[in-house]
Hints:
The protein is an all-alpha fold.
Amino acid sequence: FWQGFVWGMAMIAAIILLIRLLGGFSFGEWALRGPALWGYAALWGIVFLCVGLFEEFAFRGYTQFTLASGVGFWPAAVTLSAAFGALHLRNDGEGLVGALSVFVIGMFFCLTLRRTGNLWFAVGLHASFDWGETFIFSVPTSGIVAPGHLLNSSFHGPDWLTGGTVGPEGSVMAFAVLALAAAIFSRVFPPLEEKH
């Protein structure tokens, strides 16, 4: 869980940093101070822990295991990740590129499941990625802008860079970071049958 948490924070920070380096993101002023800051940090931490638990168990838990027993791991992963992406289209502000990004991150979560043998890495990654997006960097998460965020940050520039109303999940930078993360993860976590 904690390894996944660190990976999730590193991934969202990398996406935001790349967008900023290309002139598409400003941190802005502090939006919260004092007890409100700590209260919202905890609130969003709990919310996204629950989201990570629910979505990972729903899409990569028993459902993945059961479907994989009939069609194989990766066909099940593609099917359930596509459903995961499509489900996000119900969010206001979400778009097709954002849903495609959610599909790709769903496939990355499946890779973590395959290589670690359990869901905890994916749960930690999922929770911290969403918490970093919503609270720390204070940007839209799958098209949703939440109240109680740390910064008055802003995007400026083309949608391909910033993700537009979708947020950084809809940015080209998200796809680049996900590809790099998958390559690094595959090196750090070899297939389970190769471990001694």
